[in-house]
Amino acid sequence: MTDSSATPATGATAVRRTSLVRAGVQARHISLELIEAAPGATIELTAGQERLAVVMSGRAEVGIDGSAARPAGGRADVFEGPGDAVYLPPEATATLITGDGWLTLALAAADAGSGPPGPARVIRPADQRVAQVGRQSWERTVRTILGPDQPASRLLVGETINPPGLWSSFPPHRHDRESEEETALEEVYLYRVQPQNGFGVQVRYDSDVEQEARVVRDGDVAVIRSGYHPVAAAPGHRLYYLWVMAGDGRVMRPYIDPRYRWVEEEAR
């Protein structure tokens, strides 16, 4: 992780901003930043790009474009349940003032695409689609925060939680080519693990020749530009990842590896 702009700890005004992914460097469209703020701190989100700030833990008062502040957040951690998020189109700004505890935000950003951005708003858990996906050893919870059916220009954002020992992004799928069966979307994962000393495994392959498996731990990031990319949680540990996708369109049309389609078909 690369620290882009860290404010020295100064009591209740400390804000630390850490750049995890930069558009034009690790990814084409997506930038991802982690913001950690002490009690009573003020976070300014300035105009410039389409953004979604996901409250991973803590609470804040949020004012959008100078409007009266409203409460947002409240979950202790990402495993507790769905959380609030703040969507900002490129021209919008927001001010967040933390409460009596620390606040952690994941800030996803991208330049607007060809489609019109949506209105600035707080996205509550009731506005999200939460679903149990898969079955048996590949069952997981998927929370779609900003999906294709919600107004936005380029960003698609959600959260996935793997129970201990189970797989997600399975059957393996890819979304890096444009065709009738697939939409090209790059993707970024930000991982959390419970307990924190655990790990997961991120697999990525284009073919039986080009393939890799990587151990991922709490706070790690994966940038997925191409290939199939299933994920597994270690036994005894829950695995979470924030997923951010972006491309030239906002249609989620993944291509499932034909060799493993029978797994999904058998589950129907």
Overview features:
268 residues; mainly beta; Jelly Rolls; seven-stranded antiparallel beta sheet; six-stranded antiparallel beta sheet; 23 strands; globular; disordered N terminus
Strand-and-helix sequence, N→C?
Answer: EEEEEEEEEEEEEEEEEEEEEEEH
Relative helix content: under 10%
Calculate the mean pLDDT score and round it.
Answer: 94
Instruction: Give the C-alpha Rg.
Output: 18 Å
The CA-CA distance between the termini, in Å, is 41 Å
Annotated CATH architecture = Sandwich
Number of helices: 1
CATH class: Mainly Beta
Compute the number of strand runs: 23
Give the spatial strand order of the biggest sheet: 1-2-3-10-5-8-11
Q: Write the CATH fold name.
A: Jelly Rolls
Total domain units: 1
Strand fraction = over 45%
The major beta sheet can be summarized as:
7 strands, antiparallel
| Basic shape | globular
Low-confidence blocks of residues:
1-12
